[in-house]
Amino acid sequence: MTPERKANLQRLFNPKHIAVIGGTDAEAVAVESQRMGYRGQLWPVNPKRKTLGGHECFPSAEDLPEAPDAVFLAIPREPAIETVDRLRQMGAGGIVCYTAGFKEVGEQGAGAEDALMNACGEMALVGPNCYGILNYLDRVALWPFAHGGNCPGFGAAIITQSGMLASDLTMSQRSLPLAFMISAGNQALLSIEDYILYLCEREEIRSIGIHVEGIRDWYAFEEASVKAMDHDIPIVVLKSGSSSIGSELTLTHTGSISGADHIYSALFERLGIIRVDNASEFLETLKYLSVSRLPKGNRVAGLTCSGGGAAMLADMGEKEGLDFKQPGETTKETLASLLPHTATASNPLDYTTPIWGIPEKTVPVFKCLIKDGYDMAIIVQDYPSEELDESRASYANDSRAFVAAVKATGIPGAVCSVIPENLDSDIRKELIAEGIAPMQGIHDCINAVSKAIWHAERRKTIKQSEFPRLYRFTKSSNCITILNELEGKQMLSNSGVPIPPYASVKGLEIKQLPNQVSFPLVAKMISRDLSHKTEAGSVMVGLEDHEAVNLALKTMTDSVRRYKPEALTDEFLLEKQVESPLAELLVNVKKNTEYGTVLTMASGGIFVELLEDAVHLLLPTSSQEIERELGRLKISRLIEGFRGRPPVQMNHLLEVINQIINCALDPENQIIELEINPLFVLPDFAIAVDAFIQLG
């Protein structure tokens, strides 16, 4: 973003004057601005009306008192482009282009969008085809509909590619403190990344929520996300829709175990971005991050006046990796002296109804448990409906007792209802003012807390390491060459990747074994067109003598002739058979012009598609990250040592995987995809027994 556009973006988001151009939709903006308490000047522009939203209309943009800082534009497409050009000449700051009919409608619309961008110059443009922006902090509503949301002076900033979802989120009853709502629309000029960079400079922003269908510029997104992390602003992403990631020729197994969504997840994890699955998780996670502080660890103190609530906390917490560690003996003794005799000193703690709602009894209990080495605390409370408010004071007393205990111990806290709607709205406001997160729904609460803990740990790891930026990949040619296995193995060997001793032979009969190899042997047909050798019957193992080899060559020839006759050759690879491995891995390195280079590791051999056991990392990465991801595979237990079998020396395995990566990244090799399947993993070494390589 140029300095001029950045300055204009600031004018747009916090304007001294707003021009609304159009009819009904523009009038709605005027009304919403007044309702929100906008303190600047508002200038309607409409040649056919005398007033709009209670304000006198100007007949044209040229008649305005001065160049407006912000414009809401809601007129048809062609006049909109002309008006944008005039506003640029006047020196306007920025525009929310509510007008639709641009690239979202096809080729003709795309041409109109190009014209719109050209007309903008250095102005800031939101949209087109968007609802606009709500700046709750500065009371700016460039928004054509009634909206909800509250702002206590801080909160979350949300950016969404869906206008209706943006509106829905403002209307939620989840008490999320909102600082900004931005409907990005087509992102003709201003992108999600531009908004993140701007929002990072606002100290009132506690978290950023993003709803995306796809990311257009992965490298710009990375830059913006790193800046957010530098400012200690967590990002939460709700990803939906199909990906725009371009596909390239794929003949490997990786296509069945990886896809755009997996790669997006790899990007988010790389950047410490929290990913959620639905709108309620989105809101609750943002709420926790905006109101409370990040826990320093996963040890959680749980409080409830219900045995069932305690069990649910423990069960859900265990699934999400929370540690409801039991209190120490001294704490147990103190709790026993403070609790009714029917209560058991444990964590989560059911403090029982005899002391419910009595602050002089609950505060000491809460403090006693919470101070016993925990990183955060949760209390479970479900408030009665308004018509059943006789006991409301007791619930409120326990919430306030919890607040007092948490503040006394200095750890973050959350009040959580089992059922989302059962948390009193007045209490929610009170808790937010105290810096205690009011969480609606026990599952979403536990989920949000676990994701906050993950983010804290991930952020710490990233900040402590040298964070390398994504590799950029530019195609050198549109021509793709597939190496046969012999050529691929030679390239691997030249890069230091271990391969079995081998020799190539021609014909269907050998009389003498080449000096490079010895029995037992593996025989394979050498062909560029046989990417899946097992299915083709073009590989034979356990060959103990010349007779077995010759029979194998004939058998493979017959099999390939039936499977794929155009792939048939008379050239074969003979390899020294490697002893049975502890595990078989698939290791794939694939380059893409959109997201750079991704490393995929998976259960290898015949289990690739069967188990769908795969992990993905964007490159560059570290050996520590590779080891961490290997530990997530289902077959990791084989690597660690299973049922008395020896464990793998991890340093040897990591060395080989890094050699494979280096081979794929070597510019002289011109590799666009390299797959080893399988990589035999043995206790003290790993060896590539098959290879598929594409050049381009």
The unreliable regions are 246-251, 253-258
How many helices? The count is: 22
* Radius of gyration over all CA atoms, rounded: 31 Å
CATH class of the largest domain: Alpha Beta
- Coarse shape: flat
* Count of β-strands: 30
CATH topology of the largest domain: Rossmann fold
How would you explain this protein's 3D organization?
- 48% of the residues are buried.
- This protein is of the alpha/beta class and 696 residues long.
- A 7-stranded mixed beta sheet has the order 9-8-11-10-12-13-14, with helices on both faces. Strands 20, 25, 26, 27, 28, 29 and 30 form a 7-stranded antiparallel beta sheet that branches. A 5-stranded parallel beta sheet has the order 2-1-5-6-7, covered by helices on one side.
- The chain is built from 22 helices and 30 strands.
Search tags:
single chain; 696 residues; alpha/beta; Rossmann fold; 7-stranded mixed sheet; 7-stranded antiparallel sheet; 37% helix
Tell me briefly what this model is:
The chain has 22 helices and 30 strands. With 696 residues, it is of the alpha/beta class.
Task: Annotate the secondary structure layout.
Blueprint (H helix, E strand, L loop, with lengths): L2 H11 L3 E6 L1 H13 L4 E5 L5 E2 L2 E2 L13 E5 L2 H14 L3 E4 L9 H14 L3 E3 L6 E3 L4 E3 L12 E6 L2 H8 L7 E6 L8 H8 L5 E8 L5 H13 L4 E5 L20 H11 L3 E3 L2 H13 L8 E5 L2 H13 L9 H10 L10 E2 L8 H12 L5 E5 L11 H18 L3 E5 L7 H10 L2 E4 L1 H23 L16 E3 L1 H10 L7 E5 L14 E5 L7 H4 L2 E5 L2 H18 L7 E6 L6 E10 L3 E8 L4 H4 L2 E5 L4 H8 L5 H5 L9 H16 L5 E12 L2 E4 L3 E4 L1
Parallel strand pairs: 1-2, 1-5, 5-6, 6-7, 10-11, 10-12, 12-13, 13-14, 15-16, 15-17, 17-18, 18-19
Antiparallel strand pairs: 3-4, 8-9, 8-11, 20-30, 21-24, 22-23, 22-24, 25-26, 25-28, 26-27, 28-29, 28-30
Helix pairs in contact: 3-4, 6-7, 9-15, 10-15, 11-12, 12-13
